[in-house]
Amino acid sequence: MLNELKKRLTGKTDSSGDAFVDALREAISPERVKFDGAHRALHGHDASVFDGGNSGPVVYPETTAEVQAVVRLANDHGRNVVPRGAGTGLAGGAIPLGAPVVVAVTRMNKILEVDVDNMIAWVEPGVVNLDLSNTLRPHGFHFAPDPSSQQACTIGGNVANNSGGPHCLAYGVTNAHVVALEVVLPSGEVAMLGGLDAEPQGLDLRGVFVGSEGTLGITTRIAVRLTKNRPEVRTLLLSFDSVTDAANTVSGVIAGGIVPAAMEVMDQRITEAVENYVGAGYPLDAAAVLLAEVDGLDAGVDIDADRIAQIGRDNNATAVRLAETDHERALLWKGRKTAFGAIAQIAPDYYLHDTVVPRSALAGVLEEVYAIAKRHDVLVMNVFHAGDGNLHPLLIFDAREEGVLDRVHAAGGEIITASLDAGGVLSGEHGIGVEKQKYMDRMFSGDDLDHQNRLRQGFDPFCRTNPGKVIPSGHSCADIQSLRNVPDKVWG
Amino acid sequence: MDLKLDDDMLNQCVQCGLCLPHCPTFRVTGDETMSPRGRIKLMREVQLADAPVTDEVLDAFSSCVQCRGCEPACPSGVEYGHLMERTRETLADEGMMTPAWQRLALKPLANPTLLHAGSKVLAVAQRLKLVPGRLGISEQLPMRQAPLETSGDDVFLFTGCVMDAWQRDVHAAGQRVLEAAGFGVTPTNELAPCCGALQAHAGLTGETRSLAETMMANLDAGSGAEPRPIIVDSAGCGAAMKDYGHLLDTPEAVAFSARVFDIQEFLALHLNRLPTAAPIDLRVAVQDPCHLRHVQRVHDATRTVLRPYVRELVELDDEGLCCGAGGAYSVLEPELAGQIRERKLGSIERAAPDVVASANPGCSMHLGSAGANTRHPMQLIDDALNQ
Ligand SMILES: Cc1cc2nc3c(=O)[nH]c(=O)nc-3n(C[C@H](O)[C@H](O)[C@H](O)COP(=O)(O)OP(=O)(O)OC[C@H]3O[C@@H](n4cnc5c(N)ncnc54)[C@H](O)[C@@H]3O)c2cc1C
Ligand code: SF4
Ligand code: SF4
Fold first, then answer.
1. Nearest CA to B163 among B283, B303, B64, B289?
2. Residues 11-40 of A with CB under 8 A from B
3. What structural domains does chain A harbor?
4. CB-based contact (8 Å) between B206 and chain A?
5. Given the CA of residue A214, which atom of ligand 1 is nearest to it?
6. Residues 106-165 of B with CB under 8 A from A
């Protein structure tokens, strides 16, 4: 308060000494353009371990026109632009490289329109994922993609990362739930990609933008598809004496023709940390637990739940528990969804991988992951979207320990190689960002990468928007993660 | 600069951001420096990387409501409240925070005579319409008040400072409800002038420690006697007193804190002793004070004790997000406090209650001064028992 007072009395605001910053202040509003050390330090990070960010000014626009003004000024001053949502990204996508202006869309957080008849909602990009679902729920709808970070992450971030979540197994990832996007292109023009018609005209540029990790522009309004709330839900918790048994159960369920709404596996270490936080009654003695959910009409869900329980028992499940109440179900999910956060109870740092492997290879790759970690003497925990083979091996460590980072990176590289060798892909849902960039050429040929870069340059010829991300530098002035040549389904 | 924070606790935060939406200041500003993750990061920068304590860093720290909504949201168990209290203590010691006028303003709290004299001046001023609205004092302060009388020695009822001066009718209602449940009540009056919560929030932890020691000595059971529970009807005071164990770090303080109960918490444990009564004909929304929900974590008890006595009990839809009162916060940071309150008022409007039940005087006054009809749960139960 005193600072405010002082500013008011002396009329002194921090003088930036930077023409770009002054122009931004003129165009937006001095209070919503920050250039001090505290703001710049905090916007140099997201939720990933990457620690090399360097932010220029930070702006908090409130309208499309303001975003447009920022992008145009950046072009005029030859400066780069990085969009940012809640900063929960795990691949360093929102980390500023080369002192760009960081465009934090957190204040663009209005739900503009809910059109129940057409099952569409228009939202601003800073709307928090869970807020949207909570607002829709009384109308009988929700937004289906439910990343574990859904209480905090934004719809704009979900679009940029084409994020998935436990329930995307049955419902599809973000791409399937975004109908149209208003974007401010790197040139500063505003364009509408996609549309509300069933068959929008021309190339599906909406589909190109979804998953582009902020490299093709900034989305300022999003039309999302509403999903009907589920009439009946059954949630099962199965315990196993080995991770392999859990993985085999997952394969068995899919092979049995059941399409569960979600299937998530956690190993013993992570389950312990999670249980300590939520107290949901997760078993502490099981080597792995499988959280499986089915939804639909009354009779069907009971039959499916019974069959999953049976398949579990056939694969040596030591216990099968059915959540009796909504409260019990909510607690179990809260546990699963806070798993990454809970690990600090064990060590303060984590390096998270996000590979996808064919479900048939799940058990084998997991065994290898544990062996790799052991070889490099690092702690590994596994928590993953088992239904679509999306692994999240978490290497946990204390960065203050001498030499540990080298071991972590070595183990990480081998885990990725093992996943790719098994026919998998590099990233299921967290994106490439800066973290996984160096592994891109293990997955794509030089030609692939060059074509991706060309697509990117179609949008952004000067590589000004989120430069240094996704495409390894050898193949571009910057990079792009465009259409990854893997079927949509596996990006959950 | 050394903020005197525990390195391990500081490193416990993995910067995941899951706490962001539970932070009222981040919610209204969208600004990372006004978020728990950001504030922790700044503490690290200052303590571990020797970053300078600039105006922006001080703003980030002083804009924190200390509602601790970020704590239950944190899966890593970061004890944010303790980190912030210690940060403020260090910065106040260094003269970088909590200027002299604030220290002076907190003085009367620990001195009942001064406080009551000040309240009387305020009451007169209020009648002459000299009190600015932003002080958040909505109801007319009473000019004269009947003191609370001891009715027995089963439990202490903590009367405290501000609340006793301004809301003695809440204590009176609480006392009658306790008595209806068959407990003889000793109001603490001069025995325990102030809990020290506001001082601790301002970084004046030394003053809180000495208040805690006085209170512990005065409310000691004496040798041989069964230690009496200490019942508190203000969520902020209860939270502070439950923290004496941590603050003083002595076995006596730990034992003392274990005797402290929020009044709803205590009655929920003795539900069978409360008489039945016809419910009052009101739709009541429960507003959870942060220090009941996020710190003491006994907010369910409010529902348990209140439900039988009202026609309808409804929840707010904001998952216990702070209302912006925050002890002295609404006076020190009026702009943010007002914006935060707007969100709460929106949530109250959607719940459409006749009355908002709030178990903390600060929240009651902050919301009341914006037109919300607030009552303490004890007043509602008291009404039901005496209708
Ligand atoms: C505990 C935890 C659990 C998680 N679980 C999951 C999970 O289950 N599934 C999953 O997919 N992810 C998960 N994530 C990762 C992350 O939450 C998601 O990627 C999320 O979508 C990021 O949203 P955000 O708002 O935080 O975006 P940010 O981190 O701020 O940004 C992410 C990327 O989006 C870009 N971007 C942001 N806003 C815009 C915009 N308006 N226009 C254009 N580009 C933009 C940024 O430049 C950046 O490249 C998890 C993260 C955490 C910390
Ligand atoms: S305080 Fe907890 S929830 Fe918030 S960023 Fe740190 S670890 Fe995550
Ligand atoms: S105590 Fe409250 S205001 Fe302060 S950081 Fe935590 S949630 Fe935000």
1. B289
2. 34, 36-39
3. 2-106 (3.30.43.10), 111-228 (3.30.465.10), 232-336 (3.30.70.2190), 347-421 (3.30.70.2740)
4. no
5. 44
6. none
* pLDDT over 90 percentage in chain B: 63
Instruction: Name which of B379, B181, B163, B179 is nearest B284 in CA terms.
Output: B379
Give the nearest chain B residue to A340 (CA atoms). Answer: B16
For B311-341, write each residue's pLDDT tens digit.
999 999 998 999 998 877 888 888 999 999 9
Pocket test residue of A163, A178, A334 for ligand 1, highest count of atoms within 8 A of CB: A163
Whether chain B has a CB inside 8 Å of the CB on A5: the answer is: no
User: Measured between CB atoms, does A340 come within 8 Å of chain B?
Assistant: yes
| CA-nearest residue, atom 5 of ligand 3 | B36
Distance A135 CA to ligand 1 centre (A): 21
Q: Which residues touch A432 (CB under 8 Å, ≥6 apart)?
A: A91, A93, A213, A426, A440, A469, A470, A481
- Using CB atoms, pick whichever of B16, B18, B54 lies closest to residue A37: B54
Please tell me what DSSP assigns to residue B110.
G
Interface check B14 vs A, CB under 8 A:
yes
Q: Name the DSSP letter for residue B232.
A: E
Q: Which of A85, A211, A220, A87 is nearest to A160 (CA)?
A: A211
Residues of B in contact with A39 (CB under 8 A): 31-33, 56
Kindly list the strands in the beta sheet with A111-115, ordered across the sheet, starting from the edge strand earlier in the chain. A111-115, A120-123, A218-225, A178-184, A190-194
Cβ contact, residue pair A151, B21, below 8 Å:
yes
Question: Global pTM?
Answer: 0.88
Q: Each residue of A67-119: pLDDT tens digit?
A: 999 999 999 999 999 999 999 998 889 999 888 999 999 999 999 999 999 99
What sign results for the dihedral spanned by CA atoms B34, B40, B45, B51? positive
Judged by phi (left if over 0) then psi (alpha if -120 to 50, else beta), residue A418 lies in: alpha
* C-alpha to C-alpha distance for B28 and B18, rounded to whole angstroms: 16
Q: What domains sit in chain B, N to C, each tagged with a CATH number?
A: 7-93 (1.10.1060.10), 108-268 (no CATH), 277-385 (3.40.50)
How many interface pairs between A and B have CB atoms less than 8 angstroms apart? Answer: 118
Instruction: Give me A288's structure tokens.
Output: 């792995």
